[in-house]
């Protein structure tokens, strides 16, 4: 997308505003499937926690994608978006047996990540196809909050507990159809991914009737100029060869599953915000925008760096600005960042705003959530309206008059 397109959308729909480029999402999906084209059976399950707008789900559905979900609410959204139950994969953490049973009743593939629930579910439903999430004890990911495959992680069943796991399966006569792992997000070194894959292959040998192996995702995308990204093409060559060899050894063509979220939608997203005030102090020039960490929390939560451009003055002389929000806490998006000269009323564009941005937004300070627009075929389509005051009150219940009258 061009800066003029974004500026026009900000004028048309107002700010703050999330914009997603459909063409970029499609190209990332095609790039991944091409990298693993030598695998006979490949399935992409979009990790919808990254961005769960129904229009985005429909776009990926039409490309052939399945869904990776982590809650029953995500499952219901996927069904609402037109996904067949068998195209939805459910990988929760720390949920009740009741929720897992409720999701199973919807016809969705379940993935269990702890021994207690596995044993309980297997005893009650021995014939239901189940996938098992393994913790490979591999530290990977760009931040401790998104590294989920290490030894202290709450996710998955430890590879050291495989003998116990196998006993549960044998005692309940469960139907294990898949093995799953996810080491973390923002993986830089594909050798770490390949090392973890070997652990998954070894675990898979304990089960004779598998249909698929799910390798999770965590592919890193670039966030700034010359940033390192996962080499998808190289990973495709190496893992495809090893996966096909394992299938030959296993005696059956299994399906290889990935569940990318950030890889598919991050670079497609732009967050547009208007500059409310330019504030000069003794040491800093602040650009205060009509947003805060209630709309984009990643810089504060993960220390992530989003490239910021003044699309109202893209060729202006660069100055140093600290870009901050309007929340009544320190919500700093960038500190002393070189940006084209900013004036009040200008529109700033944040790159890489497609993944874990709107989906992590809130109504903190009773602020409204922003609108979302899908840019497709040279046109902007509103896919979520700006919230209004009525939305803040929708589920609130005032005290009865007889109580308030006694206060």
TrEMBL record:
Reactions the enzyme catalyzes: meso-2,6-diaminopimelate + H(+) = L-lysine + CO2
EC class of the enzyme, as a word: lyase
Residue ranges of domain Orn/DAP/Arg decarboxylase 2 C-terminal in the record: 18-354
One of the record's GO molecular function terms: diaminopimelate decarboxylase activity
Positions with a binding annotation for pyridoxal 5'-phosphate: 218, 356
EC number: 4.1.1.20
A Pfam match: Orn_DAP_Arg_deC
Annotated positions binding substrate: 298, 302, 329, 356
Family: Belongs to the Orn/Lys/Arg decarboxylase class-II family. LysA subfamily.
Record's keyword terms, sorted: Amino-acid biosynthesis, Decarboxylase, Lyase, Lysine biosynthesis, Pyridoxal phosphate
Residues modified as N6-(pyridoxal phosphate)lysine: 49
Cofactor(s) essential for the protein: pyridoxal 5'-phosphate
Pathway: Amino-acid biosynthesis; L-lysine biosynthesis via DAP pathway; L-lysine from DL-2,6-diaminopimelate: step 1/1
Subunit and interaction comment: Homodimer.
Gene from which this protein is expressed: lysA
Source species of the chain: Flavobacterium taihuense
Protein name: Diaminopimelate decarboxylase
UniProt-listed PROSITE patterns: ODR_DC_2_1
Domain Orn/DAP/Arg decarboxylase 2 N-terminal: 24-266
Function: Specifically catalyzes the decarboxylation of meso-diaminopimelate (meso-DAP) to L-lysine.
